[in-house]
Design a protein that fits this description.
The structure holds two protein chains of two kinds. Chain A contains nine helices and nine strands. By secondary structure, chain A is α/β, with parallel strands linked by helices. The chains are: A alpha/beta, B mainly alpha.
Chain lengths: ~260, ~270
C-alpha cells in the first residue's frame, strides 16, 4: 500500500481502481473507485457473492488488491482499524475483559493502562457489569457488543463491520442498530457497514452503496438525508421509508443486471 | 432415557448400581471358590487375594513404585515431546510431512516387537523401560495436539493477523488454548497406553532377569505358581490405571470447566 495522501483532505479512505482476483481465478471485485469521507457512515448493500466482504477485507488489509491502491488518511492510520466480524468471534476460554483487552495485549500495552481502556470500551457498549463473565454466559446480542468493544478498545478512527447483526433476532438487532448509531455519532467514527438488509442500511447510513455480483462492482449509491444519530422515531419517518423503498428497487435492478 | 434418572434417588441409584454389581460379582467369586474347593493355584478367592496384598505389601509396594515411576516419567516425556513436536508441525507443513511418517511407523510397529531391541541397546534398564512406555504413549498426544493447534477459529486468526501478532503470540494466546480440549482427550488415551507400555516392557525385560516392577512380580509369581500374588499384582496394575485415568479426567475438568462444552455442568 502506498503511503500517498488521499486526494481530498476530508477523505478517510480512497480506493483507486481496486481489483481483486483470487488465486483460483474467481474475479471477486472489478475495478472499484471509491472515496469514503471522514465521519461518514457508509452502508454497503448487495446480494451474496457480490464482493462486499472482499471489499471490507481489502480495506482492513487482510487481503491485498490484485491491482489498484487503497489509501488511508493519516488520521485513520494513527490507530489500528477496528473490525467487527459476522459472528462475535470471541475466545471462549477468556473472560469478556480479556477478550476486549486482546488487541492491547498483542501490542504490549501496560496492564493498568489497558484495563482502563477496556473499562471505557465496555462502558461504550453498555457492558460495564459483565467484565468477568465468559462469552457462553452472554446472549448473542451481548456477545456482539463485546466484539464491538474489542474493535473500539484501540481507539480506531475507522470501523469496518461485516454483517455484524445478521444472525440476531429483529428486536435485538434494532436495539444494537440504535446504540451503534449513537456511539458512532458520539465518537465521530468513520464506518463501513456491510449488510444484506435494506432497512438496516437505510437506518444507519449517511450513504448506501448497492453492489452487484460476478464480478463484484458498485451498482449505484444513495445518500440518506437525516441527522445522526438515528433513533426509533427515524424508523417511522417518510425519509426512512422512502430510502428503504429506493434501496430495494436498486437492489432488484442490481440482481437483474447480474442475470442479464 | 428414563425421566426418573434426573431425580435424586435416581442419581444415587446410578452411583450405587455399579458398586452393587461389583460386590455381587466378588461375592459370587468367593462362594464359587469356597463351595467348589477350588485349589488356590487355580483361582484364589477375593479374600485370599486381599490377604496376600496385605501380607506381601513390602514386596508389592516396591514393585508398584517402580511401575508407577516408569509410567509417570514416560507419560511426562510423551507429553513434553509430543506437544513440542505438534508445535513444530503447525509452524510448517513441510516439517510435518517430513516427520509424521516416522511417528506413524513408531505407532504401527507393535511394542513387544521393538522392546527387546530397546532393552538391548539401552544399558540402563530403567531408562529402557521409560523409552518403551514413551514410544507406546506419544502418538495420541501428537495427533490430538496437532489437530487442536490447527482447529482455530479463522476469524480469530484474522484478528491476530490484523493486529500484527507474532508467531509466538498466536501460538500461546490462540493455538494453545484452542488445542486444550483435544490435548486432554489425547492425554487420557496416552495415560492408559503409558501404563500398558511400562507393563509390556517389564515383561520383555523381566525374562532378562531385571528385578523390578509389577509385571515382573506377575511373571515370577506365575513361574512359582504363587497365583494369589499374581492376582494381587494384577489388582495393583488395574488400580494404577484407574487412578491415572481419574487424575487426567480431573485435570481436564479443572482446565476446561469454565468454557468448554465437554466439561460444562449438566444442568445448563
Amino acid at each position: 500500500m502506498t503511503p500517498a495522501e488521499p486526494s481530498r483532505r476530508h477523505a478517510a479512505v480512497v480506493l483507486d481502481g481496486v481489483q481483486k482476483t483470487f488465486p483460483n481465478g474467481t474475479r471477486a471485485l472489478a475495478a472499484v473507485d471509491l472515496e469514503i469521507g471522514e465521519g461518514e457512515f457508509l452502508g454497503i448493500l448487495g446480494p451474496s457473492g457480490c464482493g462486499k466482504s472482499t471489499l471490507l477485507r481489502l480495506v482492513a488489509g487482510l487481503l491485498r488488491p490484485s491491482s489498484g491502491a487503497i489509501r488511508l488518511s493519516p488520521a485513520v492510520r494513527a490507530a489500528p482499524v477496528g473490525f467487527v466480524f459476522q459472528s462475535p468471534t470471541l475466545m471462549p476460554w477468556a473472560s469478556v475483559q480479556s477478550n476486549v483487552r486482546l488487541p492491547l495485549d498483542l501490542q504490549d500495552v501496560p496492564r493498568t493502562e489497558a484495563d482502563a481502556r477496556v473499562a471505557r470500551a465496555l462502558d461504550q457498549v453498555g457492558l460495564r457489569d459483565f467484565a468477568h463473565f465468559h462469552p457462553r454466559e452472554l446472549s448473542g446480542g451481548m456477545q456482539m457488543r463485546v466484539s464491538i468493544a474489542r474493535a473500539l478498545v484501540t481507539g480506531p478512527r475507522l470501523l469496518l463491520m461485516d454483517e455484524p447483526f445478521g444472525a440476531l433476532d429483529e428486536i435485538t438487532r434494532h436495539r444494537l442498530d440504535r446504540d451503534l448509531s449513537a456511539l458512532c455519532a458520539r465518537e465521530g467514527l468513520t464506518v463501513v457497514f456491510v449488510t444484506h438488509s435494506t432497512y438496516e442500511a437505510a437506518f444507519l447510513s449517511t450513504r448506501v452503496l448497492v453492489m452487484s455480483s460476478r464480478p463484484g462492482r458498485i451498482h449505484g449509491g444513495q445518500p440518506v438525508d437525516a441527522a445522526l444519530p438515528r433513533d426509533d422515531a427515524f424508523r417511522a419517518s417518510p425519509e426512512f421509508t422512502r430510502t428503504a423503498a429506493r434501496l430495494s428497487a436498486m437492489l432488484a435492478a442490481a440482481m437483474e443486471e447480474k442475470a442479464a | 432415557m428414563n425421566v426418573d434418572d434426573e431425580r435424586l434417588p435416581g442419581r444415587i441409584l446410578s452411583l450405587l448400581a455399579p458398586v452393587l454389581v461389583g460386590a455381587g460379582l466378588l461375592l459370587a467369586w468367593q462362594l464359587a471358590v469356597e463351595l467348589n474347593d477350588v485349589p488356590v493355584y487355580i483361582a484364589p478367592s477375593p479374600l485370599q487375594i486381599l490377604r496376600t496384598l496385605v501380607h506381601d505389601w513390602g514386596l508389592l509396594s516396591g514393585s508398584l513404585l517402580v511401575t508407577l515411576q516408569v509410567t509417570l516419567v514416560a507419560l511426562l516425556a510423551a507429553v513434553v515431546l509430543g506437544v513440542g513436536l505438534s508445535m513444530l508441525f503447525v509452524q510448517s507443513r513441510v516439517i510435518e510431512a517430513a516427520l509424521l511418517p516416522y511417528a506413524v511407523i513408531l505407532q504401527v510397529t507393535p511394542l513387544v516387537a521393538i522392546a527387546p531391541l530397546i532393552i538391548i541397546w539401552v544399558d540402563d534398564s530403567r531408562a529402557a523401560l521409560v523409552i518403551c512406555a514413551t514410544v507406546a504413549s506419544i502418538f495420541p498426544v501428537i495427533t490430538n495436539t496437532t489437530l487442536g493447534l490447527r482447529s482455530v477459529d479463522p476469524g480469530l486468526l484474522d484478528l491476530f493477523r490484523m493486529h500484527n501478532a507474532t508467531r509466538v503470540q498466536t501460538l500461546l494466546r490462540l493455538r494453545v488454548p484452542s488445542a486444550a480440549p483435544y490435548f486432554f482427550a489425547g492425554l487420557r488415551v496416552a495415560a492408559a497406553l503409558a501404563l500398558i507400555g511400562a507393563v509390556v516392557a517389564e515383561f520383555v525385560a523381566g525374562t532378562g532377569g531385571t528385578r523390578s516392577g509389577l509385571a515382573y512380580q506377575i511373571l515370577q509369581s506365575g513361574l512359582q505358581l504363587n497365583i494369589p500374588r499374581l492376582f494381587a499384582a494384577l489388582v495393583l496394575i488395574t488400580l494404577t490405571g484407574i487412578a491415572l485415568f481419574g487424575i487426567v479426567t480431573l485435570a481436564s475438568r479443572l482446565a476446561l470447566r469454565h468454557w468448554h462444552e465437554s466439561e460444562l455442568p449438566a444442568e445448563r
